[in-house]
Amino acid sequence: MNRRVRTRIAPSPTGFLHLGTARTALFSWAFARHFGGDFILRIEDTDVARSTQDSVEQILASMKWLGLDCDEGPIYQMQRLEQRARGEKTRYDGRWRPEPGKVLPPAPTGVDPVIRFRNPLDGAVTWDDLVKGPISISNKEIDDLIIVRPDGIPTYNFCVVVDDWDMNVSHVFRGDEHVNNTPWQINIFNALGAPLPLFGHVPIILGDDGLKLSKRRGAVSVTAYEDAGYLPEAMLNYLARLGWSHGDEELFTREQLIAWFDGTHLSKSPAQWDPAKLNWVNAHYLKTIEETRLAALVSQQLDRRGIAASVQQVAPLCPLFKDRCSTTVELADWVAMYFADVRPREEDLATHVTDAVKPALHTLRSKLADIEWNKAAISVAIKNTLTAHSLKMPQLAHAVRVLVCGRAQTPSLDAVLELFPRETVLARLRGD
Ligand code: GLU
Fold first, then answer.
1. What pLDDT, in 10s, does the model give residues 25-48?
2. What is the DSSP string of 118-170?
């Protein structure tokens, strides 16, 4: 590879950072990092009607959250372009296309002319796609693209080429919805005498229902996953595996990704979004991240529910519950009981807090009022209560859990209770 590796991501700021764009950004970033090249962020804000500053900020925030640092940018495609010559069904008939010996008809009056790119008539545009392999499209299928509109504003396919050339982009990874633009772009590159980048068109991501991932059927933005309690390292890991593999590796660090990602082993077929696998990956990282950071994330989740709990207060609680959680939202569901009232469900109360158990609850409460407040002493109090009332552990433990924790299943009861202030436990056992 004799050209310096320079990749870019060129999102249009018309919404949040879509998962598909995030993945393409991730591939472009990892590729640049692998080869010691540069990664550029270019904001294609030429669709004036749909581009918003809010969206630009969301995109930048999501890129930052994922840790996709760029070497250049954000560069804004400053001209206010109206999008785009794509999607036209009709084809230009070549009326004003200069040909040797041809007399061009006069331009109609009152019409500002466009500028079209004189596309080669013969031959084919061929490139070896980094993802899809060799692609060849006959020039007969490509018409003379409008590159400048009547108002003098250049169009999308032209801007992309100019920008990619100006920015010396060597490798273009993008979604395969752009595959049909590439022949035009290659012809324009060639006409300008510009060096061609290599192109890699990444297949779309399908939802778990096998249909295109779309907003109507679930979260499609990076922000939504951040809000839902996923960790950036988990998203990075999971997104990287969507359409790329390195042997059987499922869990890997950012450094490993960079070491392995050389643009090979990209899948030709669409990847399928798998929420259960994402949860599994996230659960792995929840177990491994630094405790204070985890506590801070849980504290933020609680704050969004109107529950004030500092990082210092939350930190000692997380270790007990994190192994059974996939997200920080789930972890906050557990930890919330230490800071806010619980509301046991009527059916749990009816099932577990029965008349047969109530006297034992009374005994336990008196014992708990009197002991040193630690796990071992709580455990002894529970056992003594069971013996005194000839009950089995689950009968008493379920009732205590429902009253104190608001749910019948928890980790080991003594460990859970120890983390409450004694007064809270006594009050909840009393049914206050
Ligand atoms: N702005 C285009 C998009 O968001 C990307 C163009 C490109 O990557 O070449 O779809």
1. 999 999 999 999 999 999 988 777
2. ---SSSEEEEEETTTEEEEEEGGG----EEE-TTSPBPHHHHHHHHHHHTT--
